[in-house]
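Example 3.2
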Amino acid sequence: MPRPLPTLRLGPVGLVLVGIVSVQVGAAIAKDLFGSISPTALVWLRLFFSAVVLALIARPRLVGRSRSDWLVVLGFGLSLGGMNWAIYQSFARIPLGIAVTLEFVGPLALALLGSRRRRDFAWVGLAAAGVLLLGFERSDLDPLGVAFALLAGGCWASYILLSASTGRRWPGFDGLTVASIVAAALITLPAILSGGTTLLEPRVLAIGALVGLLSSVVPYCCELVALRTIRPALFGVLMSLEPAAAALAAIVVLGELLAPVQWVAVACVVAASIGATRSSAPLHTEPAPD
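Structure, written as tokens:
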């Protein structure tokens, strides 16, 4: 009898953690390449390679779709492309851990939207304290980098909202595959203009493929398998570790160190996200997009 694959022994929690680490390591590797290629060109390579792999896996059925189906998946692709483009623009300007922490404000705000419970206002205050700590500790943060991180967070919130509608209309990986193609197509021209002939260099293509694998294919596969058995609330709690994972990946891959106060800020946002997830609707019922 053949031995089971090692990844299957991890269990759903282990698979989610592998996905989280893979996303952030991919982001750190991408940032390390920004000296050779623009963030726009690199995020296009990531989206392009992940779309190709997903298309080969899913082979989506496109015929017989209604106008509403296409409008939903186009909006999904727009939010996916905008989120990835914005976060790459952000951590090209500010530390990766800080960028992901600020980005997390989007899904956190979505989880708490409309809540009237006093406990949930405490989570809002804790997250706000974390963001303010980042601002006070690093007054030299590039304002444009901060703005891009918050834009990415807004796109992430719209991604979460549209993912449910897309999942109802497009079975399996079909919707995600079409959205990935849309996202890549949206930034093809800007990527060509900013990347030029660099996009054809074998080293850049290889790293782009690696980033697409680490940041999209591996985490989606891990998380979709995990979501078959893991409770959504627990999945949301685990995904709340993303900012801390980003900060650690930046230390290991890039040598980006955070000050103690910045670690406190990251911890505030992580704790607020965990608290909001446990006390309200889960932040995520789909794999993390970036």
